[in-house]
Design a protein that fits this description.
Number of helices: 6
Strand content: under 5%
Largest sheet: none
Number of strands: 0
Helix content: over 70%
Number of domains: 1
Length: about 140
């Protein structure tokens, strides 16, 4: 009985660590696609920049959808399950990057120009909605 509990805790812990890695990878990709670096964006978040906040949240939510779906459908064998979760997570984040790039090209202006603006820019909401919906679409396609 205790060995089952410890095994479950270990497996769950490994999936939590992998999920955190997927979220970090999502933020890393978001950092590449937007101007400035994480430190500058952190400063902008503290200063209350709504564009930075909305896009960062959209990436975290979308990445979370993908991680949850990847874990939900994982293999019962730990090694294969972790590998499939990592692969689906990475592919999902790459799909998010492509989506954000396509939305940026299809909407007027350049998201990179609007990103650091202190006033909320409507294109930020469009991009954030596309990020969240694509995260949900990827998650459901994994299921």
């Amino acid at each position: 009985m205790w060995s089952d509990i410890w095994t479950g805790l270990l497996h769950g812990g490994l999936y939590v660590v992998l999920s955190m890695a997927i979220l970090v990878f999502g933020v890393f990709v978001h950092d590449i696609l937007t101007p400035g670096k994480i430190g500058q964006k952190g400063k902008l978040l503290i200063e209350g920049n709504p564009n930075v906040a909305v896009l960062t949240v959209s990436y975290l939510v979308a990445s979370g959808f993908i991680a949850v779906a990847a874990i939900w459908t994982t293999h019962s064998e730990l090694g294969r399950g972790l590998l499939s979760t990592a692969i689906f997570g990475a592919v999902g984040i790459i799909v998010l990057a492509v989506t954000e790039t396509v939305v940026d090209k299809l909407t007027p202006g350049d998201l990179r120009d609007y990103f650091c603006e202190p006033q909320f820019q409507p294109v930020t909401a469009v991009t954030a909605a596309a990020n969240i919906m694509m995260g949900l679409i990827v998650a459901v396609s994994i299921l």
